[in-house]
Amino acid sequence: MMQITNGDKATLVYIGEDYYQDFVTIVNKGIEMFYQKVLTILTCLDLSNNSFHGRIPEEIQMLRSFRVMNLSNNGFSGEISLALQNLKDLESLDLSRNQLSGKIPPQLSSLTFLEALNLSYNQLEGSIPQSNQFMTFTNDSYRRNPKLCGLPLSRKCNEVGLRMPPPLGEDEDSWLYAMSTWKIALIGYANGLVVGLCIGYTVLNELGNKWVEKFKKCGKRNRRRCR
Known about the structure:
Radius of gyration: 34 Å
Mean pLDDT: 75
Oligomer: single chain
Order of helices and strands: EEEEEEEEEEEEEEEH
């Protein structure tokens, strides 16, 4: 899968013949395709449905001839490797159903040949890049990443960041979330009550002082007139 440079010309060489005689079935750009023979123009890596785990290795950037990469249904974790930006010929990338987290690297928008992208069923977050090929992908590319936002999703991003409600079914987290909400409401109510009492006391005290002063002045003349 590496480019073998012969002078200024880059050529691809398989070990053996010019093509494999064995047939193979490959998921290419989201479509399952059957190949009776594999020509050298097809450079594909399909490691899906295994138990690989850990971070996507940086060494993958050495395989610059990739056109199709499928690492779905594994246990890859951590952030999406920036090494993928060096695979300039990549046409299809499937990283779905892993445990990838963090933001989608905006550097991946430099993959201008990328026609199919699947990042669904991960733990990605933040805004989706809004340039080049990323403008062509649909909601299906990002399904089940509840902390992702921005087009093509209907979930909008804000400057502070998304505040997600507690997951359904987690009674303890839901209870803590409800208690924190009530605490905020009670604090606001108490502050408003104190401010209201202070204002009321000030107004009544001022009116009382004026009434006492008026009563004293009138008492010297005729108290009945001042009733």
